[in-house]
What we know:
The protein is of the alpha/beta class. It has helices at about 1-25, 35-55, 65-75, 85-95, 105-120, 140-145, 150, 165, 170-180, 195-200, 215, 240-245, 250-255, 265-275, 280-290, 305-315, 315-345, 350-365, 370-380, 385-395, 395-410, 410-420, 425-455, 470-475, 480-510, and strands spanning about 30-35, 60-65, 80-85, 120, 130-135, 155-160, 180-190, 205-210, 220-225, 235-240. The strands form 3 sheets. The protein has a 5-stranded mixed sheet. A 3-stranded antiparallel sheet has the order 3-10-4, sandwiched between helices. A two-stranded parallel sheet has the order 1-2. Helix 2 (about 35-55) links the parallel strand 1 and strand 2. Helix 17 packs across helix 25 (about 480-510) and helix 22 (about 410-420) packs antiparallel against helix 23 (about 425-455). The radius of gyration is 27 Å and the shape is elongated.
Amino acid sequence: xxxxxxxxAAAAVCVFSLAASAETHGAPIxxxxxxxxxxxxxxxxxxxxxxxxxxxxxxxxxxxxxxxVAFDALRNGGIDLYVEYTxxxxxxxxxDNSETRGAADVFGRVSRTFAERFDLAWLAPFGFNNTYxxxxxxxxxxxxxxxxxxELARHSVRYGMSHxxxxxxxxxxxxxxxxxxxxxxxxxxxxxxxYEALAEDAVDVADGYSTDAKIATRQLTVLRDDRxxxxxxxxxxxxxxxxxxxxxxxxxxxATLAGRxxxxxxxxxxxxxxxxxxxxxxxxxxxxxxxxxxxxxxxxRARSASLFGTLWQRRDVTWRxxxxxxxxxxxxxxxxxxxxxxxxxxxxxxxxxxxAALGIAGVLQTIPSIALLAFMLPLFGIGAxxxxxxxxxxxxxxxxRNTVTGLRAVDPRLVEVGLGLGMTRRQLLRQVELPLAAxxxxxGIRTSTVINVGTATLAAFIGAGxxxxxxxxxxxxxxxxxxxxxALPAALLAIAVDGVLGGVERRATPRGLRLRPIDA
Length: 520
């Protein structure tokens, strides 16, 4: 038993080290991006110009779940830079709701305060203002006679808002108070799904960004902010000062992008990703080549319009993501075994201790998985380590519970016989109790691992990669085929893991305890 635990512990160290090293190896500069189309395109623009101009390796950490995750990752060193918006920095991060005097005033405030308080630098803006807007279907806005938010406030309508907008200091609570909005109903949803809800008449009003391509392609009406509630939202690189002190040439290279992207250009790049089904990397490369500040690259094929075509087109990417997904799950599973099995052995004969241990593990299990992932960010930053830590905690209960149950299920008479034959407690545990409890323990490991294969798809929201990446990206660009290109392999991986561990469970069951069909 001790040798088995040593083997599991050694495997845990190796797997965890592999996950951590893969996270940082060969990536001197890490570019982050939030989980929407524009952020991915601008992240690629910055990453590619740094790669070509400086010859450095750039690691991409895209699809980060909103401002808080991206900003905390920047402060903690998980990423070195990402695109932020000046209005977001002022209202949401600094909670400064004072009156503003234009774009220059907002940029000056956030530049000074971020440098003093966070040791972060705002570089020159790209040139466009992606402000928040409220949008409606054109026919509905015309029927209500609402061209401004103030006119909308006279009507009781259904609002569908992005989750982040519901929580931001410059979001729905403050907007509702400023305009006195009459809210018939209010639901939170992913940003890009709100456009689908508008099209299906599930909601009347949604929040959007002024550069969203869907506003034009779906012929939506933008309600004018007649009271000037929203400040300027100029997009600009937000960079760690530590990186600039080590690599001042980073600022010089990114400065070549200052003022080069206007509203129409950004809207068109977003449309190419969402409407033409092009990769953000290809759109960014074409933009840089057009400006003449980077070499032109051969574009990849646009995403296929069919599910089978998408799966075939992405087969190499899917294989790589599946292996990484399996590595994350295996790391968490091994660590959970190392902790849960010994604890289960110790407390199995102590009812009060067992109740306490199972109670703690049960509480961890009740925490929503996305929340548990978020709790790990302050401790481990973004990437594989917080994902492994969260999955480890989430996988404890099935293993611990089945270890306790399996050891308690051992017939006491067998223990008495062993003691009568002169066996020690350690010999009884190793040679009698654990072999008999092995099917229970392995069933717990099997359950824990299969659950974590599915849960690990959420790790993409904290930059951990895996099969959750195409799911998150598909939600962003409203591409069902792309979503399924991550969901189907994840489901198949769970089935395969369940089958393999089921075979191990059967082989570990003592031959005399295996069920055989009864002859008629």
